[in-house]
TrEMBL record, chain A:
Pfam families in the record: Clat_adaptor_s
Domain (AP complex mu/sigma subunit) ranges: 1-145
Record's keyword annotation contains Protein transport: yes
Name of the protein this chain belongs to: AP complex subunit sigma
Gene3D superfamilies: 3.30.450.60
GO terms, biological process: Golgi to vacuole transport; intracellular protein transport
From TrEMBL, chain B:
Positions of transmembrane segments: none
PANTHER family attached to this UniProt entry: ADAPTIN, ALPHA/GAMMA/EPSILON
Positions of the UniProt region annotated as Disordered: 708-825
Protein transport as UniProt keyword: yes
Complexes and interactors: Adaptor protein complex 4 (AP-4) is a heterotetramer composed of two large adaptins, a medium adaptin and a small adaptin.
Entry keyword set: Golgi apparatus, Membrane, Protein transport, Transport
Protein location: Endomembrane system
Protein's organism: Vitis rotundifolia (Muscadine grape)
Function: Subunit of novel type of clathrin- or non-clathrin-associated protein coat involved in targeting proteins from the trans-Golgi network (TGN) to the endosomal-lysosomal system.
Amino acid composition bias (Polar residues), ranges on this chain: 783-795
Full protein name: AP-4 complex subunit epsilon
Amino acid sequence: MIRAVIVMNTQGKPRLTKFYDYMPPEKQQELIRRVFGVLCSRAENVSNFVEADSVFGPDTRLVYKHYATLYFVFIFDSSENELAMLDLIQVLVETLDKCFKNVCELDIVFNYSKLHTILDEIIFGGQVLETSSAEVMKAVEEISRLETASNTITLVPKSISGWRS
Amino acid sequence: MGSQGGFGQSKEFLDLVKSIGEARSKAEEDRIVLHEIETLKRRIEFIIRLVYVEMLGHDASFGYIHAVKMTHDDSLLLKRTGYLAVTLFLNEDHDLIILIVNTIQKDLKSDNYLVVCAALNAVCKLINEETIPAVLPQVVELLGHSKEAVRKKAIMALHRFYQRSPSSVMHLVSNFRKKLCDNDPGVMGATLCPLFDLIAVDANSYKDLVISFVSILKQVAERRLPKTYDYHQMPAPFIQIRLLKILALLGSGDRQASENMYTVVGDIFRKCDSTSNIGNAVLYECICCVSSIYPNPKLLEAAADVISRFLKSDSHNLKYMGIDALSRLIKISPEIAEQHQLAVIDCLEDPDDTLKRKTFELLYRMTKSSNVEVIVDRMIDYMISINDNHYKTEIASRCVELAEQFAPSNHWFIQTMNKVFEHAGDLVNSKVAHNLMRLIAEGFGEDDDTADCQLRSSAVESYLRIIGEPKLPSAFLQVICWVLGEYGTAGGKYSASYITGKLCDVAEAHSSNDTVKAYAVTALMKVYAFEIAAGRKVDMLPECQSLIEELSASHSTDLQQRAYELQAVVTLDAHAVEIIMPSDASCEDIEVDKNLSFLDSYVERSLEQGAQPYIPENERSGMINICNFRSQDQHDTSTHTLRFEAYELPKTSAPPRISPVSLAPSTELVPVPEPSYPVETHHVASVPSVSDTGSTELRLRLDGVQKKWGRPTYSSPASSSSDSTSLKAVNGVTQSDVSSTSTSRTRDSSYDSRSAQGEISSEKKKLAASLFGGPSKTEKRPSSTSHKVARSTSPAVEKSQGPKAVASSTTGVVSEKAAPLQPPPDLLDLGEPTVTSSAPSVDPFKQLEGLLDPTQATSAANYGAVDNTKAADIMSVYSEFPTSGQSSVIANPLPTNAGDANLIPGLSTTNKTGHAKGPNPRDALEKDALVRQMGVTPMSQNPNLFRDLLG
């Protein structure tokens, strides 16, 4: 299964993290730091695979892809195929690109929740759900359509008082 | 919140009240209120901000409750955001989960499938073993949902439950099987995940599904699925990969099942597009499958072809996969490595660390006694060069393992271990150190004393050389001290004062390390004891004297004890010393009188003097019940679990107390305090007793005690029983080792017929020759002779192995003449040595080839009854599906529409198209400007995320 998805920029700032097994926030930060340490020590024209045993425990691999200012990192175990995971990163990025038209780091920063929606349509509970970016787009569009629809119906949510108190 | 007006409200609230109050018309008031509502609704954004803040590593726990509340909301947007936040914030054991379970239950029954999906998403992350029953019925119900997306997610949620707690969904396995025939291929694909896990645990119960899996795979490979499942012109590659993984599990060691798979796997090998990344992923999976199922020569050949393509590729990724695939296939057909030796060596010297490590893994798997020296040397070199402690530990333990298994000579073994210890001493298991000491003490167990002596003296020599180096790891120093103590003066080559001087230096240089000092002092004592026993006069060096004095005032009682013992031993006469410290007796068994019968007279005397007879503790229990209960309670609470069974009788008390029970029953031993003192002192004294035969009363008692309280460091070289068994294991290995040399010889000679390829640097050739047994005849001969030369020069135990090796090589030649084609049995084989060469009695390919092109009916008939029912069903379903699937408005994956059309081919063919991406560079530049403004990507020169990808 896929253990975690991390998107971070080339300075090591996380842009999107999703851990499919719970990790306390401190642990997440440490893992992100260590992953970044591994990634930035790697040269340009080497493989996209890293054995991640020392960071994530036994039987874990890490696949990453470097786009402009961003690293896309998938961490998974032996029940997945490295090359296939590399393509899954491709699927994610393709989808983002379709969604944002020329996606850049800023889109990812500003559309944080949309990113999660997209990711949830691709990976579900650590398993690959969908690999066609067209299908993912369709699902995501459907979601945003229904979300706006439901918002106009119930203009005033019931529990409006909650947040600020 | 700056409070004004004393009511604790914020200024904003006051402003709101004021502006409403000042509103001059209903319309204006409405406008203000609506605006306020809009503001308030932005709390979604607050939650998102909170998630963001936490991702950056700050504490957002105060807001968790708001996220939980948000999941209760009716609005889809809010609900989904709430679920997103809780899945990111909470874990399944968090206190707030209890507030969510109810919502999840309700939402799983919702009419809106998006709500259901959001809830399922939360289920995956937030439901633990205890809460599974609360949602399980609803999730199972969703397996029949009309939306395939929901069915898919429901299956995955069940899979998640299975991962959490296999027992909770065991009764639902039939549902997984049923869902395999779901009329949506996506749902079928999702079902493969839990089935894969189930099959990994117990393959035998799913053998009946082989036919179905094979026919599904066949249909997928033949593109019977709707076009929407294509990915980069590959039909549903992720499903193919999953299926191949399952087939690999099902076919492993099962000839009948495997034979069903040969055709379809062969088809995939042929059809797969090896230019795309995903095509290679499927090919790699095919190789994994082929290497796992019952071997088929044709498939192995196809796999070997693919591997050579991978290894020859320029892509590091493919090389990596090739090396990995090679290490899988090498188990079945070891000769395949031969073709790729140079590629493997290239990978070994590649700057890419991942690739290098993978290659070491391959080498580790193909190590045999003929190439162990080269491989271990390489590994050690690499180990020295890296800083990553985790991997260092791993590679060190692998070196040790290989050295223990395949060592061509003891001398080499000791040298290798020295290197490993020197560079990774504190990372390897302490057992390894004890193994090394034992090996030096016992030799290889052969009855050749001179060989053992030579071995020891070579060890002593090497240690005396190494000992001066700074920063030796503690474990290694312990070994050095022990060996110098036992054997430093044995050969007569070094004087006692020389050895003791060195030992004192060690103790001095590592004054902060008590264990090393203890080893050093004990070694000193041994050296002096042997001197005395040999009748020579002992002159203690001044630095030694000062060391002893310093240690006898040490804070460590252990060191003190050793220092005093040393002083005591030195004053004894030769006979006494001989009994206490017999020379070279570290391997002797120590007899342990468990009944402590030597105490009988003492006990008798005490009884005569009116002492109370000893009552075993379990009989005493009536009296000290309470105290026992208390201690038991403490024991129980320490485990932090509730006890459901009734309390036992209090006879199970803390282990040290049991020892009096095993004493002679009538004796009276003063229970705790008094033995504890002798224990303390004597167990320390038991270090010298490691090397004695142990016949006097005093020491016997110590040994008995030592087992209970002694520190493991000391007891483990002394515990004779475990030693002797593991020694046998070592012997066994070395013996099988000899036989394996013969097999490797045979292979070497069979390799000769192959020719070398290309001009390659002679160094690489040499390396290849030593790793693989030589690429050509001319290469191989010298290398093997040099091996022999090396052997005959290497000392001692070699002798016994030398003739055997020669003999085995001749037998190798003989067997080669007899059956040149038959590959010899290899250590790495899985017990099916002749499989690769002896073709199955009926070639399944030939058999099936005729059946391939005719109608399905015949092939279905070939597959048998199960196929007719179940698989045919699936087929019909899928063949119907394309029409319906395409009619539903699926965004056409082909770029025939709209403005951004040129993006898509650019992406799908990855980096082949060179043109700048996107119709609107201006747009991108603007974005970039904004980026810089925001300080998000100060380094980037690149406005476009995809330029790298495309350029």
